[in-house]
Amino acid sequence: LIDLGAGRARLGGSALAQTYGQLGDTPPDLDDPERLKAFFAAIQELNRDRLLAAYHDRSDGGLLATALEMAFAGRCGLDLEVPAGCDPLGWLFNEELGALIQLHRDGADRAAAILERHGLGDLWMPVGSARDDGEVVIARAGEVLHRNSRARLQQAWAETSYAIQSLRDDPDCAREEFEAIAADHPGLEPRLSFDPVSDPAAPMLNRGARPRVAILREQGVNGQVEMAFAFDAAGFEAIDLHMSDLIGGRVNLDGFRGLAACGGFSYGDVLGAGQGWAKAVLFRPDLEEQFAAFFADPTRFALGVCNGCQMLAALKQLIPGSAHWPRFVRNRCEQFEARLSLVEVLETPSVLLAGMAGSRLPVPVAHGEGRAEFAAGGGIQALGNRAALRFVGPGGAPAERYPDNPNGSPDGLTGITNDDGRVTLMMPHPERAIRKLQFSWAPPEWPDASPWLRLFRNARAWVG
Does residue 399 register a pLDDT over 70? Predict the structure, then answer.
């Protein structure tokens, strides 16, 4: 604990006072601006030297709420020691300025020296440590004041949100997410079936050619910049192509080897998931013919992500080998989902996912209508080896429960391809995660280019 209140423990206006229907007397204050400046400088240095494992200020609920929220995020237990002679309520619940930092064991001495050098040597103290057994123990001078489980406390912490979510969203999804708090869940565990350092497109890059790929967008689409960056990094010349360019005849698809329909919310999604965008093609005979010719050409490929996935799925009548594709409808939870999810790459003919089968990778999702719905008489079994991506839970089993499966698709389905693998659709956003630094955490052995860049490099290698 770094205590910028210097032991004052003022409780006026605190969450603790409010729970007793009180305001209290004296609230916390900034008594020494220089001390706050020193604190900021010290934290920056600790972070620069990679000594911080975790950080949380204590200004909302006090030290106990701070420590528990850190334990909830880490899904671990906690030992918390109240100093002898301290009033537990005041010490645990005051909202004085300060922060709780978690240090790596081998860096504690270096961290102490940094705090000392910044003039904070008398304002910090060790207060506890993480536990592997999920127990939360608060003690003072050897006496246990409170013992509980992380799961029980976190469910109490989340109970109000759960009640609101049950009324607002699908109640079964709300229940599944609430129950998952207590489940033994290891989190998102990546597993690779290929070397992320290897670049199958490297021989093509040495030739200097940069094939053109159309980064296709419509009114409301917002993912074109990330998509262009991903294809550019893989060795393509990414060309911004708006539907108005095609409609106005200023550009056609003849000069492109690839097409990427980007994510976002075409027409604000008020016309249905990508349906309005697709109709802009299907209701114009010249555009319909142009897209059909592109998809029929065996030397060209296409990628549809999120809204682009929905749009291309609605164009399946123009895409050879896509008769069994589903359409994408409102998420089972009845809400927009934006989170990091774990997907498994399945064995398919997809040219974009070549050599990636068996990998489990975290990937951003951001959609409100991503649930795969099959026509009567169809189903996921009819896809066969054209089911390309699926959400998975712990151990790699197909995710059926929320939130491991954020949209409710059967068997976790979230990516498909056509018969010859030239057209691949997916609801997640690999283009938003092609660099390691785009993840809040990634395995240290990953290179700067994350494993998702392989998808775009595969496209470059296939084009030749």
Answer: yes
